[in-house]
Model the fold of this input.
Amino acid sequence: MKNFLIVCLSILTFSSFSQSKLNVKKEFEFAAKQYQGMLSSHPDLTQFPQSTLPDGSPRNMKSDWWCSGFFGGSLWYIYQYNHLPTWKAAAEKWTMAVENEKYNTRTHDLGFMLYCPFGNGYRLTKNPVYKDIMLTGAKSLATRFDPKIGLIKSWESFVGGYKYPVIIDNMMNLEFLFWAAKESGNKELYNLSVIHADNTMKNHYRPDFSSYHVLCYGPNGEILAKKTHQGAADESAWSRGQAWGLYGYTVMYRETKDKKYLDFARNIANFYLNNPNLPADKIPYWDFSKVGEERDASAGAICASALLELSTFGGKDAKTYYNSAVKMLESLSTPAYKAELGKNNHFILMHSTGHKPGNSEINVPLIYADYYYLEGLLRYESLRTKKKLF
Done:
């Protein structure tokens, strides 16, 4: 995400990779027009754009919802591309709208909520206020780590009376803690991130490198159950969960340079890309077991962004990772997934699936699909032009 480094351009010859139809300038111009409509339709800074309701009206959420940081983060990405002061002002406004969540100790999602907006904002402006807010938020997130269990607690409870559930999504919040460890000198934040990642790697994954969604732990770290919440079945591969893990372990390698994480990320990527149920356009069904059902554009966007970074670390499959990511972004940029201007409640992408088993957010836009799509486009542009954008 924010600290993405182009570390292997001397190894990889991207000019030999697939010639893309992507037009990043065109896509960001469209995104700016679409999000101008979003800004106009959202004057209330307590109502964060999230999705679309079944009746077609916008679904908005409060700042304590796990997705509240993605809108501000997307505005920063648009500003990063076009450098226009109006977008900086909008990004600043919607970023500060989630400031109070820095004290929130009831969620594991502060990486999404704080690091996506404030992290991008700090990277682009070096505003010291943003740094202070994030360091406070990182301390709040760290309170959810129990050293006896060795994992950051996700939810307060899970169906069946389980009191310490941990979800694969949690891998996405470690980048925030790594940043805070570097900025504050607090080695404990680094250490607990490594412990969490190691235990997730050991317990959450099957021999084929697909991931469970929810693991339920007892008070001494014993595994009580392996479940799903948003996937089709406990033993199925929920597509967005696979993307979260891929992204998370790619970040783990970047931040630690421990090759076990690089190998693990590659194995997750290979499970994903070689899955016989992955459609030709590389945008997955909401669960890999549900061929012919709804797609999840958000999983495709997350995966594309992760694969682009993974490709920079070299290896025999780097070209495959890069070309697959480009194909995903190309697919998302077609009318099959990209909305018409002024439609789709001003979201950029269509056809994401949030929580089908809960009959929620099925075949709709999702704010985080837009965020990772824009991030993927910036990463692609960085590699294509050999300019460090992150």
Observations:
- The first helix runs from residue 24 to 41.
- Residues 14-385 form a domain with the Glycosyltransferase fold (CATH 1.50.10.10).
